[in-house]
Amino acid sequence: MKHDVETPLKFARKNQGRFLAELKDFIRIPSVSTQPQHREDVAAAAGWLAESMRQAGLENVEVIPSAVGGHPLVYGDWLNAGEDRPTVLVYGHFDVQPVEPIELWESPPFEPTVRGDFLFARGSTDDKGQSFVHVKAVEAFLKTGGSLPVNVKFIYEGEEESGGRTLAEFLPRSQEKLAASVALVSDTGILGPDQPSIVYGLRGNYYVLMDITGPAIDLHSGEYGGGIDNPLNALGHLIAALKDPDGHILIPGFYDDVRPLSEEERTLMSRVPFDEAAWLEKTGAPRPWGEPKYTLLERLGARPTLDVHGIIGGYTGEGAKTVLPSTVHVKLSMRLVPNQEPEKIGRLFEDYVREILPPTMTVTIRGGGGAPSISDIDTPAMQAARAAYAAVFDREPVFMREGGSIPVVGQFQKHLGLETVLMGFSIPGARLHSPNENFYLPNFYRGIETAIHFLAGYGDHSQKTAG
After folding, report:
1. What Cα–Cα distance (Å) separates residue 96 from each residue in 148, 202, 431, 432?
2. Per the residue annotation, which of 22, 126, 139, 160 is the catalytic one?
3. Among 275, 302, 330, 463, which one is least packed by beta carbons within 10 Å?
4. How far apart are CA 314 and CA 25, in angstroms?
5. Residue 67 CB coordination number (10 Å)
6. Is residue 211 among the annotated active site residues?
7. Would you call 95 a catalytic residue per the annotation?
């Protein structure tokens, strides 16, 4: 039996004005998790979201205090579809990035403003607007037919933008509470306003803070140059030894666990509409760069990287000061791909650095990161997402990998054994984390309709499988 989608779709279309007004109320709460002065605002956003979920018809809604001194979580569920029905775990976050520099905003960041087809405000896309889509999709079912095609659980966090310690602590001890068939996350984008895409692979990350020290104090280069090694010079040799000119990383064992790109995946990626010239123009760089055996899209989403992000050391003020610096501080990261493990990569990196640094240097290395993830595109949930996008956007989505990281996806795999469907609705130019963040409003409404189709389609597919 196919589930009715027309009735909830009509409800969603009829209530678009109310849904937008509610989203604006949600956005007005300045829930900046990284700034202590907004701690009460993050708590207020949790309370607002919990009440909205109750009004939508979700049950067992609760605000869960942090066990590690962070910001709260919000949980809710509706589990009346039956034990034989699949369960979808919806994830989102209600905290937002700081708004600085405030002077670059064209309208107040926490006063949602509609200009044309766009809603401008901090959190409009990342992630209040996108995550709110699913609350409204569930409401459309429950307010019209009183039931859902599947069971649902919601878990929202209030510190995704500030490390996610609370959720990381909560997941390992909440496996039964959060048990589900699949996770559903709307915190990504699509290729364009009318071209949906499904991200099935994300890179992980291992971030390193490194201090390289030679002499105990800064030394006069005339008196000591040629007799005492310079940490900046040693760092230059180290960086040159980390990868070759084409970006191939030289750390022994670094590529041992890399999952190779299958021919099917390379074919899928070749179908992604990608304007290389426009991409390059946006960067301002003279030409692309990277491993010649891989296409640009493959390098951006399916190959590991190593990049230096910052170097602090020596004299950088006005005028000349001829010293051998005592210490140089370095920040770098390695983007990882399936099946690389961050902890193992961290050990390989440290072993290699200690091996190649000269004995004239001492080094301190601190690091940490999140795992990469990849999902099977042939699962019932992924195919339900494909069909849902196609039904609403009237265009088949393309499957693609993304170079960025969403740590919770790897955490869901590790602690809950869940694959994740990344159902994004943000479009290029949304200015996430920047002044004038915006959400393309047609995709707010289409997002709700896509989520309605997904829930119905996933339920229908599961019925066929069970039958």
Report:
1. 30, 21, 13, 10
2. 160
3. 275
4. 50
5. 12
6. no
7. yes
